Amino acid sequence: MPAERAVRPRLRKDAELNRLRILAAAREVFRDRGVAATLNDVAHHAGLGVGTVYRRFADKEELVDALFADMVNTVEAYTREALENEDAWTGLVTALERVCEIQALDRGLREVMLGTGRGPQRQAQMGARVAPLVDQLVEKAQRQGTLRPDLLPLDLPVLQLMIAAVTDHTGQPELWRRYLALVIDGMRARPPGQSEPLPVPFGLPDRMQEALVDSSVRQADDRTGPAALEHRPSTD
């Protein structure tokens, strides 16, 4: 009996280490190969047997769910940290830089997360966790007079999508920083008469989630061709 008690903690520790190895390998494999990657590819990259991976994750969607949950936790933590900063502008800019950096590094991973079966549900999960915090952060920065008053919280995901496109279209992993700096400068509050008001964002709230998912689906299709059609979210 004492020997059995000694073995069980070790088994649990080994299982958790394997899980972390699988997640780290999956992040790299999906980043490089997008939706074409398989659990076999992940197992090989992790240096584990295929059976070990399947014992932890029944299929690729379950593995992607785990990766996405990790990303949601990270983005939520960045946003909460920004909200806790006394200087809301500094907090907002820092959070935006961090999230854009994640997007620049994880191009293929983003396609897998949003461009496959449960993309809409995953995007909704991100919105439910992060959007209320972003609302508070934007309101706080505008109240402090550092963020232009006509910027909407829903503008930020669109700006992130625009910044991500720099890496997608140029293949230069650090170029996005230049264009994020330009975007941030345009977000600053200006004295009256020194900036033009923003056009009304017609249809933005209704189209946001759908646009983000559709963008990832198109990128996945471009990378893998007709095979990726099998992973399109259902529109029924």
Give the end-to-end Cα distance, rounded to a whole number of Å: 56 Å
Strand segment tally: 0
Count the DSSP helices: 10
**Helix vs. strand class:** mainly alpha
Helix content: over 70%
CATH superfamily of the largest domain: Tetracycline Repressor, domain 2
* Assembly classification: single chain
The CATH topology of the largest domain is given as: Tetracycline Repressor, domain 2
Q: Write the element-wise H/E pattern from the N-terminal end onward.
A: HHHHHHHHHH
CATH architecture classification of the largest domain: Orthogonal Bundle
Radius of gyration: 21 Å
Molecular shape: elongated
- Stretches where pLDDT is under 50 for at least 5 consecutive residues are 225-236
What is the count of structural domains? 2
Percent strand equals: under 5%
Q: Class of the largest domain, according to the CATH hierarchy?
A: Mainly Alpha
Mean pLDDT figure? 83
